[in-house]
Amino acid sequence: MGQKPRDLTPTRSVLDFFGAELRTIRESRQMSMADLATALAYDPSQVGKVERAERSPTREFAAACDKALGTDGRLTRL
């Protein structure tokens, strides 16, 4: 089983905000982190680090998430 999700405080930092948005959207699509990683062709650990606000997302990562999650550029704009 995967790691317990880190509690995020979206007002703490831009990274926390992005991670919280990514998690909320991913979960609303009923996707696991592994499912999203597969759709993105990224390593699951990288997806997890971005979602836990441990790594900054690149613009390319955000755009790939938008495409995989059908968010019409929402994450890229963040």
Write the SSE topology:
Blueprint: H1 14-28, H2 33-40, H3 44-51, H4 59-69, H5 74-77
Helix pairs in contact: 2-3
CATH C-level label: Mainly Alpha
**What is the total number of structural domains?**
1
End-to-end distance = 30 Å
- By DSSP (H or I, 4+ residues per run), the number of helices equals 5
Kindly state the number of beta strands. Answer: 0
Average predicted confidence as pLDDT: 91
The name CATH uses for the topology is 434 Repressor (Amino-terminal Domain)
Order of helices and strands: HHHHH
Radius of gyration: 11 Å
Largest sheet: none
Name the CATH homologous superfamily. Answer: lambda repressor-like DNA-binding domains
Estimated helix fraction: 55-70%
Low-confidence stretches: none
Structure characterization notes:
By secondary structure, this protein is mostly helical. It has one domain: lambda repressor-like DNA-binding domains (434 Repressor (Amino-terminal Domain)). The protein contains five helices and no strands. Helix 2 packs across helix 3. It is globular. The model has no long low-confidence stretch (mean pLDDT 91).
Characteristics:
78 residues, mainly alpha, 434 Repressor (Amino-terminal Domain), 0% strand, globular
Short note summarizing the structure:
59% of the residues lie in helices and 0% in strands.
